[in-house]
Write a structure and sequence with these properties.
The complex is a heterodimer of chains A (217) and B (235). By secondary structure, chain A is of the alpha/beta class. Chain A is built from seven helices and five strands, in the order H-H-E-H-E-H-H-E-H-E-E-H. In chain A, strands 2-1-3-4-5 form a five-stranded parallel sheet, with helices on both faces. At the A-B interface, helix 1, helix 3 and helix 7 of A face helix 1, helix 2 and helix 5 of B.
Chain lengths: 217, 235
């Protein structure tokens, strides 16, 4: 099998006609879009209770003045920044939120001096308090620096919310995590798409306040 | 200028969106195979610009090629693309159709020799946009992320088909300007009766005696070294 065959098993390696290729690519893109939508629907159903609980606790802390520290690696670092952007966009709620993956100076200093496993935990240690919320993204559920970030968040009394893919990895049934939202898939891109959807839903539930809860449909 | 051909021409079973993504991925793969760099711009949503870049630079799938890509997230992405991009490069823009930064990049891209793909929503870009639109029903986070994930995935599938990467049937961006054998030039410096310009073919000098006073940054329609019209004269 050539390198992309696992993504698009229908492809023959001797395919030459671009128009045939384009039709095949478009068909498979449609299947991927469909797969993404179905995963989102399933994940919303499976995580309905945990998201509502997470939104309630998180909203409570935010309204009490707590801040939100968000972290993840690579694409999940982008998810973290997008989550911060959406939290800050909630009208009438001056959310103080920060991505711990956003500052390359801090990241490179920590990576170089103490190691990449501690790039988030050191920052949680520096600025996390028992009023705050920690939100971490890891498609594998195994990222060591995310796990360590949660471990320190637990010792400092933060509320901890995790987004994980696959079967949740080491983030599930983890005493450091209060609420773990699991996207059951092994396709990293599809997991990230569902995480984007469910983290948006979490923001909307936080925005709607503690009493009213939005129906995850 | 009009947008690139749409999928409506030959769409059968695949959706229009998927056809747009497939054709764009092939064009992106062809440009990469000729040494292009990719620049991503997402005004107000820099996380998406960074996400696009990291997909291409550090593929999540082991064994995929690392490709040159960079997010332009500073204050003036128009100036950054102008300074950083070489002819043949790729821009992926993400934002609504009325985003002023993306509109500027899309109208200037032909003068820089850069091809732009615009993951957008809302009102379509103005007619003078050169960008290939990859248009979404709305700007929800999931649709945006899914669009560039699929672009990345499909681009890498194209790399598995080297026979289609170098073929000569790469259709030009269909635009009234090129069809009329005119080129777009951006004024870089004013000279007496002339201007130093940037064009897809490189830097040069054009005679501006037919168009009156021009300013740095003006876009000119040029034929045989003579500017026939300024696109910015009424601005």
């Amino acid at each position: 099998m050539s390198g992309a065959s696992f993504l698009y098993p229908f492809l023959e390696s001797d395919e030459r006609d671009p128009s045939t290729l384009l039709v095949d690519l478009a068909s498979s893109a449609d299947r991927k879009i469909d797969e993404s939508r179905r995963l989102i629907e399933r994940s919303r159903r499976q995580n309905r209770d945990v998201i509502e609980a997470a939104a309630g606790s998180m909203g409570h802390r935010i309204r009490a003045g707590g801040k939100v520290l968000v972290f993840g690696n690579g694409g999940s670092a982008c998810d973290a920044s997008a989550f911060v952007r959406r939290l800050e966009g909630i009208s009438g709620l001056d959310v103080r939120a920060r991505s711990l993956a956003a500052d390359p100076v801090v990241l490179s200093a920590l990576s170089n001096d103490v190691g990449v496993a501690q790039v988030f935990s050191r920052q949680v240690e520096a600025s996390g308090s028992s009023d705050d919320v920690a939100v971490g993204f890891s498609t594998s559920g195994q990222s060591e620096n995310v796990l360590r970030g949660f471990a320190v968040a637990r010792t400092r009394g933060l509320l901890t919310i995790a987004f994980a893919g696959y079967r949740g990895g080491a983030l599930t049934e983890n005493p450091d995590i209060d609420h773990c939202i699991v996207i059951e898939s092994d396709a990293v891109h599809r997991i990230q798409e569902a995480q984007a959807d469910l983290s948006s839903l979490l923001c909307r539930l936080v925005a709607h306040g503690p009493r009213r809860s939005e129906e995850p449909t | 200028m009009t947008a690139t051909p749409t999928v409506e021409d030959g769409a059968e079973s695949p959706s229009r969106d998927a056809g747009d993504l497939a054709r764009s991925a092939l064009r992106i793969a062809r440009r990469f195979s000729r040494g292009a760099s990719l620049w991503s711009v997402a005004p107000g949503r820099v996380d998406h610009a960074r996400h696009v870049a990291v997909e291409f630079v550090h593929p999540v799938v082991v064994g995929k090629r690392a490709l040159p890509a960079e997010a332009l997230v500073d204050a003036d992405p128009v100036a950054d693309v102008r300074r950083r991009a070489d002819p043949g490069d790729i821009v992926i823009g993400i934002g609504p159709g009325d985003d002023p930064t993306l509109i500027e990049i899309a109208r200037r891209a032909p003068a820089w020799g850069v091809e732009m793909f615009w993951i957008g929503w809302g009102a379509r870009p103005p007619d003078e946009s050169s960008a290939t639109p990859l248009w979404l029903a709305d700007g929800d986070e999931v649709s945006i992320v899914r669009s560039y994930h699929l672009l990345w995935e499909l681009t890498h599938v194209c790399f598995e088909q080297p026979d289609v990467l170098g073929s000569g049937d790469d259709p030009p961006v269909s635009c009234a300007v090129c069809a009329d054998d005119l080129s777009l030039a951006e004024v870089a410096e004013i000279e007496p009766g002339a201007a130093a310009v940037r064009m897809a073919s490189g830097r040069g000098s054009v005679d501006t005696s037919l168009v009156g006073p021009v300013s740095v940054g003006d876009l000119l329609l040029v034929h045989a070294g003579v500017a026939l019209r300024s696109l910015d004269e009424v601005r």
